[in-house]
Protein backbone atom coordinates (compact mmCIF):
# COMPACT_ATOMS: atom_id res chain seq x y z
CA UNK A 1 0.00 0.00 0.00
CA UNK A 2 1.45 3.38 -0.97
CA UNK A 3 1.87 6.32 1.37
CA UNK A 4 -0.81 8.26 -0.51
CA UNK A 5 -3.41 5.51 -0.23
CA UNK A 6 -2.57 5.05 3.46
CA UNK A 7 -2.96 8.77 4.10
CA UNK A 8 -6.17 9.09 2.07
CA UNK A 9 -8.36 6.37 3.46
CA UNK A 10 -11.76 5.69 1.90
CA UNK A 11 -13.57 7.92 4.39
CA UNK A 12 -11.17 10.82 4.01
CA UNK A 13 -11.20 10.54 0.23
CA UNK A 14 -15.00 10.47 0.25
CA UNK A 15 -15.06 13.61 2.44
CA UNK A 16 -12.70 15.44 0.08
CA UNK A 17 -14.75 14.40 -2.94
CA UNK A 18 -17.97 15.50 -1.26
CA UNK A 19 -16.51 18.90 -0.43
CA UNK A 20 -15.28 19.29 -4.01
CA UNK A 21 -18.78 18.48 -5.26
CA UNK A 22 -20.35 21.00 -2.86
CA UNK A 23 -17.84 23.67 -3.90
CA UNK A 24 -18.58 23.02 -7.57
CA UNK A 25 -22.34 23.18 -7.02
CA UNK A 26 -22.03 26.32 -4.90
CA UNK A 27 -19.96 28.01 -7.62
CA UNK A 28 -22.51 26.97 -10.26
CA UNK A 29 -25.45 28.37 -8.29
CA UNK A 30 -23.56 31.54 -7.30
CA UNK A 31 -22.81 32.17 -10.97
CA UNK A 32 -26.38 31.41 -12.10
CA UNK A 33 -27.93 33.43 -9.29
CA UNK A 34 -25.58 36.33 -9.94
CA UNK A 35 -26.50 36.33 -13.63
CA UNK A 36 -30.18 36.50 -12.73
CA UNK A 37 -29.73 39.29 -10.19
CA UNK A 38 -27.44 41.26 -12.52
CA UNK A 39 -30.07 41.18 -15.26
CA UNK A 40 -28.05 39.35 -17.88
CA UNK A 41 -30.19 39.69 -21.06
CA UNK A 42 -30.45 35.92 -21.57
CA UNK A 43 -31.88 35.56 -18.05
CA UNK A 44 -34.32 38.44 -18.56
CA UNK A 45 -35.49 36.84 -21.83
CA UNK A 46 -35.78 33.38 -20.26
CA UNK A 47 -37.94 34.59 -17.38
CA UNK A 48 -39.93 36.69 -19.85
CA UNK A 49 -40.79 33.46 -21.67
CA UNK A 50 -41.95 31.89 -18.41
CA UNK A 51 -44.50 34.66 -18.20
CA UNK A 52 -44.72 35.18 -14.45
CA UNK A 53 -42.81 38.45 -14.36
CA UNK A 54 -39.26 39.45 -13.58
CA UNK A 55 -39.88 39.20 -9.83
CA UNK A 56 -39.43 35.43 -10.27
CA UNK A 57 -35.97 36.02 -11.74
CA UNK A 58 -34.98 38.08 -8.70
CA UNK A 59 -36.44 35.52 -6.30
CA UNK A 60 -34.76 32.62 -8.08
CA UNK A 61 -31.41 34.43 -8.15
CA UNK A 62 -31.62 35.23 -4.44
CA UNK A 63 -32.62 31.65 -3.59
CA UNK A 64 -29.73 30.28 -5.67
CA UNK A 65 -27.17 32.53 -4.05
CA UNK A 66 -28.54 31.92 -0.56
CA UNK A 67 -28.68 28.17 -1.13
CA UNK A 68 -25.09 28.18 -2.38
CA UNK A 69 -23.95 29.96 0.78
CA UNK A 70 -25.86 27.50 2.98
CA UNK A 71 -24.32 24.61 1.05
CA UNK A 72 -20.83 25.76 2.06
CA UNK A 73 -21.43 26.19 5.79
CA UNK A 74 -21.32 22.75 7.45
CA UNK A 75 -24.21 23.26 9.93
CA UNK A 76 -26.56 24.32 7.10
CA UNK A 77 -25.58 21.97 4.25
CA UNK A 78 -28.90 20.12 4.50
CA UNK A 79 -30.93 23.31 4.20
CA UNK A 80 -28.88 24.64 1.29
CA UNK A 81 -29.16 21.35 -0.58
CA UNK A 82 -32.92 21.17 0.02
CA UNK A 83 -33.42 24.76 -1.09
CA UNK A 84 -31.38 24.29 -4.26
CA UNK A 85 -33.13 20.98 -5.00
CA UNK A 86 -36.48 22.81 -4.83
CA UNK A 87 -35.17 25.51 -7.16
CA UNK A 88 -34.02 22.76 -9.55
CA UNK A 89 -37.46 21.13 -9.43
CA UNK A 90 -39.00 24.52 -10.22
CA UNK A 91 -36.65 24.87 -13.19
CA UNK A 92 -37.58 21.36 -14.29
CA UNK A 93 -41.28 22.23 -14.13
CA UNK A 94 -40.75 25.44 -16.15
CA UNK A 95 -38.68 23.62 -18.77
CA UNK A 96 -41.19 20.80 -19.20
CA UNK A 97 -44.43 22.77 -19.18
CA UNK A 98 -43.51 26.25 -20.42
CA UNK A 99 -40.13 26.45 -22.15
CA UNK A 100 -40.12 22.96 -23.71
CA UNK A 101 -36.34 22.75 -23.43
CA UNK A 102 -33.81 20.17 -22.31
CA UNK A 103 -34.55 18.94 -18.78
CA UNK A 104 -31.63 16.59 -18.11
CA UNK A 105 -29.47 19.16 -16.31
CA UNK A 106 -32.30 20.05 -13.91
CA UNK A 107 -32.91 16.37 -13.20
CA UNK A 108 -29.22 15.69 -12.58
CA UNK A 109 -28.85 18.73 -10.30
CA UNK A 110 -31.97 17.81 -8.32
CA UNK A 111 -30.76 14.22 -7.93
CA UNK A 112 -27.29 15.27 -6.74
CA UNK A 113 -28.77 17.80 -4.31
CA UNK A 114 -31.24 15.20 -3.03
CA UNK A 115 -28.31 12.83 -2.40
CA UNK A 116 -26.45 15.56 -0.51
CA UNK A 117 -29.60 16.22 1.52
CA UNK A 118 -29.94 12.54 2.32
CA UNK A 119 -26.34 12.25 3.52
CA UNK A 120 -26.80 15.29 5.79
CA UNK A 121 -30.23 14.29 7.13
CA UNK A 122 -28.76 13.93 10.62
CA UNK A 123 -28.61 17.75 10.77
CA UNK A 124 -32.38 17.76 10.99
CA UNK A 125 -32.39 15.16 13.75
CA UNK A 126 -29.74 17.10 15.66
CA UNK A 127 -31.94 20.22 15.56
CA UNK A 128 -34.80 18.35 17.24
CA UNK A 129 -32.73 17.40 20.32
Which key phrases capture this entry?
single chain; 129 residues; mainly alpha; 7 helices
Describe the SSE topology.
Elements: H1 3-7, H2 10-38, H3 41-50, H4 55-72, H5 77-99, H6 104-119, H7 122-128
Helix pairs in contact: 2-4, 4-5, 5-6
Q: Label the structural class.
A: mainly alpha
User: Approximately how much helix is present in the residues?
Assistant: over 70%
Distance between the termini: 42 Å
Q: In one word, what is the shape?
A: elongated
**What is the number of helices?**
7
Query: What does the average pLDDT come to?
Result: 88
Radius of gyration, whole Å: 17 Å
Low-confidence segments: none
Strand content: under 5%
Biggest beta sheet attributes: none
Number of extended strands: 0
Q: Into how many domains do the coordinates divide?
A: 1
SSE string, helices as H and strands as E: HHHHHHH
Notes on the protein architecture:
The protein is mostly helical and 129 residues long. It is 84% helix and 0% strand. It is built from 7 helices and no strands. The N and C termini lie far apart (42 Å). The mean pLDDT is 88.
Amino acid sequence: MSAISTHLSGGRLRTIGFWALKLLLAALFLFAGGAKLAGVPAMVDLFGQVGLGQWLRYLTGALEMGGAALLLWPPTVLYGALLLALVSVGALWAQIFVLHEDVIHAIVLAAILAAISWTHRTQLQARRH
